[in-house]
Design goal:
- This is Iron complex transport system substrate-binding protein.
- It is found in: Cell envelope.
- One of its GO terms (biological process) is iron coordination entity transport.
- This protein has 2 domains: about 150 residues, Rossmann fold, CATH 3.40.50; about 120 residues, Rossmann fold.
- It is built from 14 helices and 12 strands.
- It is α/β, with parallel strands linked by helices.
- α7 packs antiparallel against α8.
- Strands 5-4-3-6-7 form a 5-stranded parallel beta sheet, with helices on both faces.
- The longest helix has 24 residues.
- The two termini are about 35 Å apart.
């Protein structure tokens, strides 16, 4: 599943790096003037996965290069000047788009547009270690850059990354308050589960030729479901605990045979290749009508605090047909 930057090769990124550095230098000349030097803005040292960076005390022009970081900024209603959207703003879930307001696309998660980032004159870039370690120095030449690992983070890891993002933008108290509020909401959703546990569930993504990407027990979604007392299919324990997902055929899915299936779909990802197969029709969840199509962008891509609350609400509502008061969208932060 991982699409790393390395396929560009040294030559491709080297050419882009030279172009970006030229833009940065030109921007500096354009703003330098002859009226004397301004006092440098106060900075703080922020530790991250690739070291430490001196970032502005109160960054105002933030660029986010992974969906989870956009989601985390949205949880505090912080608007980045630039964000990746893979060429389509609807790749960001509506609740995140509504919270951040207007932003400018800086390309895709796997190939962010360095020239466009430089033109936005950011004072902080938030990048992901899984995708952007190879261009860390190019990003740092544009603006102070912090690098975290959110792409395949589980539930607790996501909360930890959110705290780091809150520190990077100098809003640690606000982020901690939002995490406390979110945990309270998840507790409310958990109380909707029946006593003694419920039907075991499994989350999958349809793939070509009738295969399925099964989210393992160590995945973000599985951990959120367990957090709100949704029983995750015990057979998913066959996948390594630190594995996000594994690909199986329908026969492999039949061996797990969960009572409930959450199927993550979008315009290009559907169950069409499965529906005529006898193996699919004989699954317990299919026979019982307990297959739930859910939005793939929400369940597998956004991976922040906003999406976490929405997943918990949707899963418990679909399973138990009841939800706590004010369910349906994330609540306003205090």
């Amino acid at each position: 599943m991982s699409h790393r930057i390395g396929h560009w090769g040294k030559r491709g990124w080297g050419a882009i790096s030279a172009l970006v550095l030229s833009i940065v230098l030109l921007a500096g000349c354009a703003t330098g003037g002859g009226g004397g030097e301004e006092a440098p803005a106060p900075t703080r040292t922020v530790a991250h996965d690739l070291g430490a960076s001196a970032v502005p005390d109160k960054p105002q022009r933030i660029v986010a290069l992974e969906f989870p970081y956009v989601d985390m900024l949205a949880s505090l209603r912080v608007t980045p000047v630039g964000a990746v959207d893979d060429g389509d703003p609807e790749n960001l879930i509506p609740e995140v788009r509504n919270r951040i307001g207007k932003w400018e696309s800086v390309g895709s998660r796997s190939e962010p547009n360095l020239e466009q980032i430089a033109r936005l004159k950011p004072d902080l870039i938030i990048a992901d270690n899984e995708r952007h370690a190879g261009i860390y120095h190019e990003l740092s030449a544009i603006a102070p850059t912090v690098v975290f690992t959110a792409r395949y983070a589980g539930y607790e890891e996501t909360l930890d990354v959110a705290r780091k993002v809150g520190d990077a933008i100098n809003k640690p108290a606000e982020m901690n308050a939002e995490i406390t509020r979110l945990n309270g909401r998840l507790d409310e959703f958990a109380r909707t589960a029946p006593q003694g546990g419920g039907r075991d569930a499994l989350a999958v993504i349809p793939r070509d030729h009738g295969t399925a990407q099964v989210l393992g027990e160590g995945s973000y979604v599985a951990e959120i479901l367990r957090r709100v007392r949704v029983t995750y299919a015990p057979e998913a324990a066959a996948y390594p605990e630190n594995s996000d997902s594994s690909s199986v055929g329908l026969e492999g899915l039949a061996q797990i045979n969960p009572a409930v299936l959450f199927v993550m779909t979008d315009a290009k990802t559907t169950t069409k290749d499965w529906e005529a197969a006898p193996v699919w029709q004989n699954l317990s969840a299919v026979a019982a009508g307990d297959v739930h199509s859910v939005n793939r962008a929400l369940w597998t891509r956004s991976r922040g605090l906003v999406s976490m609350e929405l997943i918990a609400e949707e899963a418990t509502r679909l399973l138990y047909e009841r939800a706590p008061a004010n369910a349906g969208q994330p609540q306003q932060p205090n």
